[in-house]
């Protein structure tokens, strides 16, 4: 068996994702015949059928290969992007990725300093979910990223291993449970997260900890979602809290002054809302300056 051809692997992943040879050919810019030939060559090399043809879907061997393929392709793209960053001239474009709760007045101030130091820079802020941002940094789609999440005090965030990325803490804030005004727990000095496991919860994975993360933090089962919220608008999420659709965990400062919403700090376990800067190599330029300002 020879080494797996990365292009054949990428073609296989695309066909499996789209469930169609013709759609994959259109997306990749190949003929359908070329896609079929690449898949056949990969199957011959591995000695296993990877795709059923009618309908097009991964076989058991294909599903196992998909588990390996995604991280392998990300690492290949990350290696290419990392070398390009080190070898290339500083870019006149700075793309910062950020989770929704990481965007605020302090970030605006820091970006203003970068613009003053580099008046010709084209600044772009892309708001994305935490689970995709490390890979986007690794592959060069964004220059650096601010990600946030739930953690024990001074513990790093649990981020996927997608390449030789650096992380550094930018901010830690207390965590509170968001409650509708008038809730029996509103105004308590502190509540145990485990005591809330049977409550109605909002599932908002782009903004707040998932049920799995809450169960892991509290050490108990429960935290079943009553309502699912798919979006990044924290005001919309708080409107659902205010009208009784479920509880959620947020940084305490976010809840200050929210209409119809009360809060109670999480006293046990000890948790914080942590924000970290994620970056690859940073040659001198706007991205390096932004990184220094964010952690300084």
Characterization of this structure:
The chain has helices at about 5-20, 20-30, 30-45, 60-85, 105-115, 135-140, 210-220, 235-240, 250-255, 285-295, and strands at about 50-55, 55-60, 95-100, 120-125, 145-150, 165-180, 190, 200-205, 225-230, 250, 260-270, 270-280. The protein has about 300 residues and is α/β, with parallel strands linked by helices. The strands form 3 sheets. Strands 3, 4, 5, 6, 7, 10, 11 and 12 form an 8-stranded mixed β-sheet that branches. A two-stranded antiparallel sheet has the order 1-2. α1 (about 5-20) crosses α3, α1 (about 5-20) crosses α4 (about 60-85) and α2 packs across α3. The model has no long low-confidence stretch (mean pLDDT about 90).
Task: Describe the structure concisely.
The chain has 296 residues and is of the alpha/beta class. The protein has helices at residues 6-18, 21-28, 32-46, 60-87, 105-117, 133-138, 211-218, 234-242, 252-255, 286-295, and strands at 51-53, 56-58, 93-98, 122-127, 144-151, 166-180, 191-192, 201-203, 225-228, 248-251, 261-268, 272-279.
Strand content: 15-25%
Class by alpha and beta content? alpha/beta
Mean pLDDT: 90
Straight-line distance between termini: 51 Å
- Rg value: 23 Å
Q: What is the helix tally?
A: 10
**SSE order, one letter for each helix or strand:** HHHEEHEHEHEEEEHEHEHEEH
Helix content: 25-40%
Which oligomeric state applies?
Answer: single chain
Low-confidence stretches: none
Kindly state the number of beta strands.
Answer: 12
SSE topology sketch:
Layout: H1 6-18, H2 21-28, H3 32-46, E1 51-53, E2 56-58, H4 60-87, E3 93-98, H5 105-117, E4 122-127, H6 133-138, E5 144-151, E6 166-180, E7 191-192, E8 201-203, H7 211-218, E9 225-228, H8 234-242, E10 248-251, H9 252-255, E11 261-268, E12 272-279, H10 286-295
Parallel strand pairs: 3-4, 3-5, 7-11, 8-9
Antiparallel strand pairs: 1-2, 5-12, 6-10, 6-11, 6-12
């Amino acid at each position: 068996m020879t080494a797996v051809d990365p292009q054949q692997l990428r073609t296989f992943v695309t066909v499996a994702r789209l469930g169609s040879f013709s759609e994959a050919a259109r997306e990749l810019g190949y003929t359908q015949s070329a896609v079929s030939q690449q898949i056949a060559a990969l199957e011959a090399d591995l000695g296993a059928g990877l795709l059923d043809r009618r309908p097009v879907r991964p076989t058991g061997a294909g599903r196992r290969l998909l588990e390996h393929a995604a991280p392998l392709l990300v690492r290949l793209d990350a290696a290419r992007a990392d070398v390009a960053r080190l070898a290339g001239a500083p870019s006149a474009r700075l793309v910062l990725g950020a989770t929704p709760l990481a965007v605020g007045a302090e970030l605006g101030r820091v970006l203003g300093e970068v613009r003053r130091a580099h008046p010709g820079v084209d600044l772009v802020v892309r708001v994305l979910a935490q689970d995709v941002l490390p890979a986007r940094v690794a592959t060069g789609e964004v220059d650096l990223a601010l990600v946030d999440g739930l953690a024990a005090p001074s513990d790093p965030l649990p981020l996927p291993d997608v390449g030789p990325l650096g992380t550094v803490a930018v901010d830690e804030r207390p965590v509170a449970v968001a409650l509708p005004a008038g809730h029996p727990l509103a105004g308590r000095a502190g509540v145990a997260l485990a005591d809330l496991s049977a409550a109605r919860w909002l599932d908002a994975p782009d903004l707040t900890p998932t049920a799995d993360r809450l169960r892991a933090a509290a050490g108990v089962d429960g935290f079943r979602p009553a309502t699912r919220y798919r979006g990044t608008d924290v005001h919309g999420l708080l409107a659902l809290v205010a009208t009784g659709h479920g509880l959620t965990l947020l940084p305490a400062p976010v809840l200050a002054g929210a209409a119809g919403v009360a809060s109670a700090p999480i006293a046990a376990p000890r948790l914080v809302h942590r924000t970290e800067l994620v970056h690859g190599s940073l040659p001198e330029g706007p991205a390096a300056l932004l990184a220094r300002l964010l952690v300084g």
